[in-house]
Amino acid sequence: MSTSTVRPAILAGRWYPADPAALRKEVDGYLASAGRVHQTREVVGLIAPHAGHRFSGPVAGYAYAAVTGRQYDTVAVLSPFHAGHPAPTLTTVFRQYATPLGQVPVDTDTLTRLGAHMTEDGLPPPLPMDHESEHAIEIQLPFLQCALDGEFKLLPLMLASITYPCAQALGRALARCLDGQNALLVASTDLSHFYPEAAANKMDRMLLEAVASGSVEAVIETHRCGQAQACGIMAIVAVMTAVRQLGASETAILHYATSGAVTGDLEQVVGYPAGAFLKPNRNQETS
Question: Is residue 1 in some structural domain?
Answer without folding.
Answer: no
